[in-house]
Amino acid sequence: SCCSGAIRYLLVCTASRQRLDRFTPERVLAMCSLSAAAPAFFPGGCTSAGGVEGQGRADSASWCRHASGGCSGDAYSSSFRGAGAAAIADPVSSTGQQLPVLKLASMLGDFDPEPPEPPCKWGSGSMAGSMAGSMDGTLLQLGGDDGALRTAIWSKAKYGKKVKQKDEPSSKAVRAAHQLRQLLDFYFEPFNFQHNRYLLDLMARSVGAPDQVGPWLTEQLAEFRFVFKDLEGLGRIAQAMAKMRLAQCEVVDGLKHLDWSDNSQLQLKSPPEVRSLVAAKDADPEAVVAAKRFLTAVKEHQGEAPAGLLSVLSYAVGITLADKSEKGVQRQAQLKRQLLLHCADVICLHGLDPEGAGESVSTTLVEEGYLYAVARSAAGEANSIFYDPTRLEMIGRAERGAGLAVDLAPLEDGHASVRIVCVKPPLPSSDDRGLWDLFGSLSGPQPLVVCADLSEVGGAGNAVIIEELSVMSSVSVAVLGEELQTPRFGFPPAITETAPGPTRGGASDFVRLHRPDGIFFNGLKPLLALSGHTEPYLMTMRSEDVAQQFPAFRVPILAAFDWRASEAAAPTASQEECPATMPAFEDVPLVPEQMQ
After folding, report:
1. How does pLDDT run across 207-223, given as a tens digit for each residue?
2. In whole angstroms, what is the distance from residue 528 CA to residue 558 CA?
3. What is the phi/psi pair of residue 259, to 5°?
4. Is 593 helix (H, G, I), strand (E, B) or coil?
5. How far is Cα of residue 93 from the mean position of the Cα atoms in its chain?
6. According to the 3-state scheme, what is the secondary structure of 50-70?
7. Which residues 6+ apart lie within 8 Å of 59 measured at CB?
């Protein structure tokens, strides 16, 4: 019976998930000796099995107090300490310091200093009931090794288990709140917000269509409101919210780009302008709706493309690809998001060499399923055309320096084809051969789309200087009424040591703008065009915001056509004097390795 207290303590520690391998024979013998010398330290230690029933309440209460270092202000405290005063002296050291029993036991091995479950958990029903009645709701002060007092409540529902203070959030909730805050800052950063399909759809359903032909203005987006439940479609945010209660989500504050409205909804702090898809005036409304739905859906949910749809994106990216700094790498990641936002059938990239500085971008597009063709000049310039092989088949190509032309046949009609040209025309000269070998015949039945970087001739407004473009229509002018503007970049003042910043007017300090690019067409009917930004918005942007929202220092142009509406333009005198046909494609070798 002298060892029963030690054995009982072993059982208690075992039931409270203490490691069994800690109880070596030497430790057990030491505990038995300690139990025989000081029975008060092991409740019921020197009593028979029947004695536990009678002493259940007293021993259990004493066990709780002594295991936790004592409870100040308790009736049992003084008698308990007095009964065990002679036995508390440490048998190992000579300090004579009074220690609770768990600290004595910890000197025999690396026991967990947290108190195990109290004996009443394994006692008889009457003992457990009496213990519950006496201890439920009792406030205890648990002394730690560092001398600090920690408050816990003994609960009737969970005998002996500590309940955290109600005002103390769990570490899991704290981490989840921190992660949620980071995700909200990321998703609602102006560039990311403008290039996330889910958020754009949420915004469009909330505020409706733009108030005018063009982008959603900042005034309209100031009315955009949403709650956390609206963000469940964003997987990473949904995962963070699942680790928190909804009430905890609603107290997340300190957000960079969001604020709480008066009715406890989230709103944008500084709304940006958001570009929108604008329908052509004479386009079929049903075809416009179908094209919008196809271009804004994620690739997995696009479904079957509307009949006759051809979407083309043109983008000059050479400056960004030449920047090898850390900022340049970040801008390339942004550029990829711009290219994949609308899942265009054809992507013309000026200044990109898939086997050179543009390898990272081209790899991303190839992983998305695109094939490509590329043309390079002797001076090292390059242009590339990417196309979706599930929608189009390349049946031929021609090059002139870095200028590139490809013939693409829609898979829905094997007898039709559309010519796509990606070119950066130089300023014409008297001995210039022109671009007819790329453009081919403008009087024939084949539709033609030209993606042109016109920075060498002063911008899209001077397209008439290029004889071949002078007889073609600009999709931006036809649908939006004007060519798209973008901030003009120069090296002073620089945002970083290697990246250019926007140039500004001397007196006004407004950002200077230009219109360097355009998409021109002949023999197709435009359905949609992606709007630009308004002039006041661009001119008054901060330099840091300009560099962030325009990663390629240009603006991507997107247009959707119905290629079946082949209405050939009447030939002009200048056309009749030029070659009427393009060189036969069978004489131009294909480059299979460049289309993988």
Report:
1. 999 989 999 999 999 99
2. 8
3. -145, 160
4. helix
5. 59
6. HHHHHCHHHHHHHHHHHHCCC
7. 43, 44, 52, 119
Q: Give the separation between CA 272 and CA 217, rounded to whole angstroms.
A: 7
DSSP 455-500: GGGTSGGGGGGSTTTTTSEEHHHHHHSSPPPEE-EESSSPSSSSS-
- What percent of the residues of the chain are helix, what percent strand, and what percent coil, each to the nearest 5? 35, 20, 45
- Cα angle: 91, vertex 95, 97; to 5 degrees: 85
Pairing of strands 448-453, 418-423: parallel
Quote the pLDDT of residue 472: 93
Largest CA distance in the chain: 120
Side-chain-side CA neighbours of 50 within 13 Å: the count stands at 0
Closest Cα to residue 547, out of 493, 488, 502? 502
Q: Which of 17, 240, 16, 230 is nearest to 122 (CA)?
A: 16
Per-residue pLDDT reduced to its tens digit, 8-25: 555 555 544 444 445 555
Structure token digits, residue 594 = 């460049």
Structure tokens at 55: 């002493």
Torsion of CA 326, 329, 334, 337, to 10 degrees: -150
